[in-house]
Amino acid sequence: MIAEVSDKEYAIQRIQEVNDALVSGMYVAARRMLHNLPACDVALLLESSPPKSRAVIWQLVDPDEHGEILEELSEEVQKSIIRQMAPEKLAAATEGMDTDDLAYVLRGLPDPVYQEVLKSMDEQDRQRAEMALSYDEDTAGGIMNTDTVTLRPDVTVDVVMRYLRLKGQLPEATDKLYVVNRDDQFIGEVALSRLLTVDTARLVSDIMTPDVQGIPADLDETEVAKLFERHDWVSAPVVDNEGHLLGRITIDDVVDIIREEAQHSMLSMAGLEDDEDTFAPVLKSTRRRTIWLAVNLVTALLAAAVSSLFEDILSQMAVLAILNTIVPSMGGIAGSQTLTLVIRGMALGHITPSNSRWLIGKELAIGALNGLIWACLIAAVVALWQQSWMVGVIIAFAMMANLLAAGLAGVTVPMLLKKFEIDPALAGGVILTTVTDVVGIFAFLGTATLLLG
Amino acid sequence: MIAEVSDKEYAIQRIQEVNDALVSGMYVAARRMLHNLPACDVALLLESSPPKSRAVIWQLVDPDEHGEILEELSEEVQKSIIRQMAPEKLAAATEGMDTDDLAYVLRGLPDPVYQEVLKSMDEQDRQRAEMALSYDEDTAGGIMNTDTVTLRPDVTVDVVMRYLRLKGQLPEATDKLYVVNRDDQFIGEVALSRLLTVDTARLVSDIMTPDVQGIPADLDETEVAKLFERHDWVSAPVVDNEGHLLGRITIDDVVDIIREEAQHSMLSMAGLEDDEDTFAPVLKSTRRRTIWLAVNLVTALLAAAVSSLFEDILSQMAVLAILNTIVPSMGGIAGSQTLTLVIRGMALGHITPSNSRWLIGKELAIGALNGLIWACLIAAVVALWQQSWMVGVIIAFAMMANLLAAGLAGVTVPMLLKKFEIDPALAGGVILTTVTDVVGIFAFLGTATLLLG
């Protein structure tokens, strides 16, 4: 009965076996192994395979499993696979798919294929799909499912129980039933646990939780995730502007959003997209990353241009050229720490107008303190190494100035970017290092010119 | 009935009002506002306040709410608050707390206070606490709650229903009841939805899902989170080595772990700790960040030492000093992109021995392609700017070499670190930039020495 500690390792091992079979061309064995693998493991195998292997694996998988596996895949990988499927196979795979996944798959298709797939679907699926497609993909409407179980307020618990037993099965992750009036407007909800613990003679209207917030269909998915986290929901109803019940959102979809949101900052800070596929083809990856390198080349050239202002002193003292990178580098590190904390704080909603001044003061104080520590240390190191206490004093001053600038920029840059509605995680790092590079070089070479030139 | 789109903004606005009242010294008004604020909003207010305001707010909060608010706080902020509470107040606050939160609070206390709090607790809470404390805090045992509802296999659904109605209420997020044998060993589970849809004359043993994996109490919480994500669980039973049911883990605690895990890489890459508090006191923050600056100073000095090997050529041509930062900077950026993708891939379990060679090949190809593009471009820029096609050729060669090194190091550094069980997110960036700095400087100044010296 006890879960093997190695549930995950076991999966990895089995995936490895499939891989080995594929490499040695034992397709029959690989097909058999794939049939025995649960959908989530096949998805993991596809995610961790280069493009060519993905195509081979997909052809070996049982078509009945296609839908379930597609649901488990990340958006980027899913898209690359559905682009290669025949419309009628795709239509078959989408049968019984959750509404949100169905809509996502359809959105990724070129228009003629899309029309063809829609035509091959059965009537009910087509209606579901068209409804979901009428909402933006990152709104509550785009991520909801339509598998709600609804009750009328004027029946007894006993009647509800008989109705449910007749139904025989409830959709996955059903923890609540929704109460609607004659116009299909959402008026309250009844938890399954409540249904099981109250007197069966009572009316639904009497035991339901009224005044529950329905999630508006056009609410952004990030806000949906925040609502789930604040209220510890397992599922929640989605309503339109007039309060009609449209569907429900379940925690498993919200967990995906939370993970994506949390990873977004890290990926953006390296100039990568959220759905970046580690195993994408070389050309595609190169194209995406080139833009980021272009932006950074401009900032590197800017720093070089600043250095070139001090060509005179640089040509007089090679030691300055050697030490010129230390102060900008330390400023970049200190600034990135502040920036990372502020970006996280913004994502968590901790940073408000009322505490931002305190925060700037705090980061300046840290900059001053760290500046003092590292100024003394670097002065000593440089004075001993280069046998010049004057250069030591110059680098100490520059270090102090740059760590202060780093603290200030680390807080203000993301705040300003947010004001102008630019993603701080994407643009913050580049702007910050530009500031610390320029300030660092100016402070070091400028002071050197004044004192030694 | 419709959720206000502004649920979050509304909270922020109310928090702002409390803040304004505190700033203007209207403590009576602030206290009244705080009493009307739900626990999650008070927690948000505390998280986004400087240390001094936190103490004031905490004193204005209704002590009956203390427990619930403590549960909502992040670990770092929670710790700072409980350290200032009197033992008997703390004992009162912990009454009715979830077992995992209770254990966490107790773990954060100095030993004498801990003993005192334990003494002031009622018998049942003390037992729960001692049980939870016997497990490591990041294991399944440390995050579980003991509020399970158990059934015997040999009773009918009808009997279960009567038992539940007698009980009158189920613990929050209960979606399943657990079936245990006479020895309290976990033998299966019954979903509430199943209970509601089957014939009431059937036996529990007949309708339960047998062969369910119980989570071993000593399983690491990261693995627990992965199990929840793989299986889309809302709750899951925890068992000891003999299969005895100990408690259960619910999705709301797992969501916190998933968020922390996802943020871990971003924070580590900036040398920050997972529970870093944006509003921690200056001295504490300075101390933590100093270590990271120290590590980076060593790498900056190393780069300077490499440059100093080429002092001759630097003193002959100041232009080399000016351009010396461009190649290392581009290498650092390109390498960080690869590193970030590999770290994310490792966290998601996508990177295995069987695909790592393919990945190295891919990143080398991207490095070569990007190297070619930026080598040509930088050669043209530098040749025009500095009126020297020779310097252009030199920097082009160095760029090419360094972008290849960046691609190679971006994949191999995190893999090697993982092999030696060092966190790639923490140490990867420093090692990577050391590689790209050293290779960049060597390639640029070394080639310059050969061709121009």
TrEMBL record, chains A, B:
Q: Matching InterPro entries, A to Z?
A: CBS_dom, CBS_dom_sf, Mg_transptr_MgtE_intracell_dom, MgtE_N_sf, MgtE_transporter, SLC41_membr_dom, SLC41_membr_dom_sf
CDD domains, A to Z: CBS_pair_Mg_transporter (cd04606)
> Where does the CBS domain lie?
144-207, 208-266
Q: Which UniProt keywords apply?
A: CBS domain, Cell membrane, Magnesium, Membrane, Metal-binding, Transmembrane, Transmembrane helix, Transport
Membrane topology value = Multi-pass membrane protein
The cellular component terms of Gene Ontology attached to this UniProt record, alphabetical and capped at eight, are: plasma membrane
State one Pfam family annotation. Answer: MgtE_N
Spell out the subcellular localization from the entry: Cell membrane; Membrane
PROSITE patterns referenced in this protein's UniProt entry, alphabetically: CBS
Top-level taxon of origin: Bacteria
Which sequence ranges are marked TM in the entry?
Answer: 291-310, 316-343, 364-385, 391-417, 429-452
Q: What is its main location?
A: membrane
Q: Name one GO molecular function term.
A: magnesium ion transmembrane transporter activity
Q: What does this protein do?
A: Acts as a magnesium transporter.
Q: How does it assemble?
A: Homodimer.
Q: Spell out the family assignment given in the record's similarity comment.
A: Belongs to the SLC41A transporter family.
What is the designated name of this protein? Answer: Magnesium transporter MgtE
Native source species? Idiomarina tyrosinivorans
